[in-house]
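Usage

Read records sequentially. Each one opens with the input sequence:
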Amino acid sequence: MWPRSEPPRKDIEDWRSFKDVGFLDDAAMEARHHQALLQNIANLEKQLFDYQYNMGLVLIEKNEWTSKYDELRQELAQLHESLNRQQSAHLISIAQVEKREQNLRNASASKKQCVLHLEKALRQTHAEREQIKLASETELADARAVAVAYQDKSLEQQGKSHAANAKLAEANKMNFEFERKLRELKYGKACLEGSVPP
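and closes with the structure output:
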């Protein structure tokens, strides 16, 4: 037979340390397991409490963010409504400005057309005035010529009238002289006949 060998010294020390801490005792092991289980339960309860507490905080924060989101959504809706009103007013203003601009263009075009018509009428009036002026000057020259001719003719007629008056006066004088001589002859004849006393 082989001689019986003794266990190593290290194994003996490990066995003693296990025995001292109770690893080789069933009751101690069960107590130790129960204590570890209670500690795990306490840790889980603490973690659950922390989780629930954090969940409460998260819910509170979620409600706050939901309220803020609703407020922001309402403000955004109001902003959109205001923006739409401003955009509509802007479009109306632009349409009014474009309408006024078109009216100004039309008025400007009408004004230019009126100016062209007025300039054309002014040129026609100026041409007519020149024609009338020329005709008037011609008529005036003709009238002056007629007046001069009439004056010359009047002077000639006046000269002829003076000559006729002179001839008439001479004829009257000669007639008077003839009548005087005729009376003298008649008187002489009468004296000769004795009908008139001497």
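Summary fields computed downstream for this record:
- The two ends are 258 Å apart (CA to CA).
- Helices lie at 9-21, 26-193.
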